[in-house]
């Protein structure tokens, strides 16, 4: 067993988290993650209403008696979702761990504190991590430039970001972006993290509610086949490289604005990718780590393999290097 401040703080067996994933972070995935001893997060906004989130939390509880949390992603939106109502749904369902991402968690902290909810804030810079610590989050998840989704605008990869954040933080920190296996977990621990957060790797498991063709696409793709979209809008996102992502980059670099790409980047088109298995149906999120993902295991096989091999790496490879 690998025991860290992360496992002790959140009451899970392994120092591994499954971060929020729009359209993917449902009970189908989160329950097996919890049963495997890792910390999974249901993605609040994947549920169309706060009431639907309440029902999804209940469904997850039927599938596991282990701890799990809810991700609340707060991003700029044309029509913002009713964040306060989602927050209330989370608290009323008795959830005790929330992953916040996007904007600062500060406005939400008094509510979470009052309801005894531990907050893991996911951010992409040392300064935002330090700010999150100052406003009272329980832990930080630091997302390097490699990550799927929103890597921020600083372009600092994990190899620098993780130790730089570790130097400034006193609360538990997990490293995110680019992790898929035991090598990554051991490296993260050595760099000063208390565990890892993974998105793409969990998306490519048997239980993830994603079409088999998309999982196979992840297995087949190399680390070079992602695209950074929305750079000129200062809302960078790392997504799969495909016909649509290339077109979006082209339109924006030719001076286009959001209105010119609105239809191409519609969330509903992205969701179609996962349901239809057509990788060119829209924009969909994936990380550079796909280059080191070579199979589609069950969640239990994946988590067990990572922790077993991590222990071996520490006991045999690393200890064996010391003379
Ligand atoms: C399909 C997909 C959807 C995602 N959606 C969200 C989201 O809604 N909110 C969020 O905070 N992070 C989201 N992420 C980011 C993950 O939680 C995690 O931070 C990221 O995947 C880590 O990088 P990795 O993919 O290299 O492991 C998403 C990632 C993927 C792969």
Describe the structure.
The chain contains 14 helices and ten strands. It is α/β, with parallel strands linked by helices and 323 residues long. The model has no long low-confidence stretch (mean pLDDT 97). It is globular, with a radius of gyration of 19 Å. The protein starts with a helix and ends with a helix. The longest helix is centred in the C-terminal third of the chain and has 23 residues, at 299-321. An eight-stranded parallel barrel has the order 1-2-3-4-5-6-7-8, surrounded by five helices. Helix 6 packs parallel to helix 7. Strand 6 (139-143), helix 7 (158-168) and strand 7 form a beta-alpha-beta unit. The structure holds flavin mononucleotide. Flavin mononucleotide is lined by residues 19-22, 24, 43, 71, 73, 101, 122, 143, 146-149, 176-179, 197-201, 203, 285-287, 289.
Give the number of DSSP strands. 10
Uncertain regions spanning at least 5 consecutive residues = none
Strand content: 5-15%
Main β sheet profile: 8 strands, parallel, barrel
The proportion of residues forming helix, as a percent range, comes to: 40-55%
Order of helices and strands: HEHEHEHEHEHEHEHEHHEEHHHH
For the largest beta sheet, what order do the strands appear in spatially? Answer: 1-2-3-4-5-6-7-8
Radius of gyration: 19 Å
Mean pLDDT over all positions: 97
What sort of overall outline do the alpha carbons produce when their principal axes are compared?
globular
- Distinct helical segment count: 14
Structural class: alpha/beta
List all distinct small molecules, including ions and cofactors, that are bound in this structure. flavin mononucleotide
Cα(first) to Cα(last) distance is 25 Å
């Amino acid at each position: 067993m690998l025991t860290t401040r992360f496992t002790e703080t959140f009451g899970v067996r392994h120092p591994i988290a499954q971060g929020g994933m729009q359209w993917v972070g449902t009970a189908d995935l989160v329950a097996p993650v919890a049963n495997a001893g890792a910390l999974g997060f249901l993605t609040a906004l994947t549920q169309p209403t706060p009431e639907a989130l309440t029902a999804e939390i209940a469904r997850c509880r039927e599938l596991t008696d282990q701890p799990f949390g809810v991700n609340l992603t707060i991003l700029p939106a044309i029509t913002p979702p009713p964040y306060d109502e989602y927050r209330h749904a989370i608290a009323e369902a008795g959830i005790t761990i929330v992953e916040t991402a996007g904007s600062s968690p500060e406005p939400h902290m008094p509510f979470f504190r009052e309801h005894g909810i531990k907050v893991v804030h996911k951010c992409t810079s040392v300064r935002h991590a330090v700010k999150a610590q100052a406003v009272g989050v329980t832990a930080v998840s630091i997302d390097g430039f490699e990550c799927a989704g929103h890597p921020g605008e600083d372009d600092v990869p994990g190899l620098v970001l993780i130790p730089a954040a570790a130097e400034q933080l006193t609360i538990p920190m997990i490293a995110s972006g680019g992790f898929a296996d035991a090598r990554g977990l051991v490296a993260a621990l050595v760099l000063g993290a208390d565990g890892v957060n993974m998105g793409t790797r969990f998306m490519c498991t048997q239980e993830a509610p994603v079409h088999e063709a998309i999982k196979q696409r992840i297995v087949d793709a190399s680390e070079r086949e992602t695209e950074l979209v929305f750079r000129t809008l200062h809302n960078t996102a790392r997504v799969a490289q495909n016909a649509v992502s290339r077109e979006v980059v082209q339109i924006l670099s030719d001076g286009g604005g959001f209105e010119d790409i609105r239809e191409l980047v519609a969330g509903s088109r992205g969701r179609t990718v996962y349901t239809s298995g057509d990788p060119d149906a829209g924009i969909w999120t994936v990380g550079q780590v796909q280059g080191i993902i070579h199979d589609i295991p069950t969640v239990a096989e994946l988590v067990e393999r990572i922790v077993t091999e991590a222990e071996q790496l520490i006991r045999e490879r690393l200890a064996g290097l010391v003379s």
